[in-house]
Amino acid sequence: MPMIVQLDVMLAKRKVRSKQLAEAIGITESNLSLLKSGKVKGVRFSTLSAICRYLDCQPGDILSYETSDEDLRPDAGD
User: Fold this and answer.
1) What SS3 class is residue 5?
2) How many domains does the chain fold into?
3) pLDDT at 66
4) Where is the HTH cro/C1-type domain (predicted)?
5) 62 lies in a domain?
6) Hey, CA dihedral for 21, 27, 33, 36, is it positive or negative?
7) For the whole model, what pTM was predicted?
8) Has residue 67 been placed in a domain?
9) Residue 68: is its pLDDT beyond 90?
10) Selection from 58, 64, 8 nearest residue 34 by Cα
C-alpha cells in the first residue's frame, strides 16, 4: 500500500497513549489500532481532523505517500 500511516510516531512524539487518543476523539481503541497499522482502506476527514487537533499536528505528520508499481494497475483501488 502506498499510503504510510505514521500515527504511532506522532503519538510517541506527543507522549500520548492510544487509549487516551481514542477516548478523546470518540473512536474505539480497536479502530485506532487498525488505523495505526494501516489496515484500513480509508479514514474520515472528521476523524483525521480530530486526531490532528488533539495531537496538534498536520495530516502530513501522520500520513505519507510512497510511490508503488501497484498504483499503475487499473484495479489497484479494488
Assistant:
1) strand
2) 1
3) 86
4) 19-62
5) yes
6) negative
7) 0.83
8) yes
9) no
10) 8
pLDDT over threshold 80, residue 61: yes
Residues shown for the chain: 78
Handedness of CA 76, 3, 52, 29 (dihedral sign): positive
Does residue 50 sit within a domain?
Answer: yes
User: Which has the minimum average pLDDT: 21-25, 28-32, 50-54, 67-71?
Assistant: 67-71
CATH code for the domain in which residue 9 is found: 1.10.260.40
How wide is the angle at C-alpha 49 spanned by C-alphas 32 and 70, nearest 5°?
65
- For 28, the grid coordinates are 474505539
Residue-number span of the structural domain to which 51 is assigned: 3-72
16 Cβ contact list (under 8 Å, min separation 6) = 54, 55
Beta strands 63-65 and 3-5, pairing class: antiparallel
Structural domain includes residue 48: yes
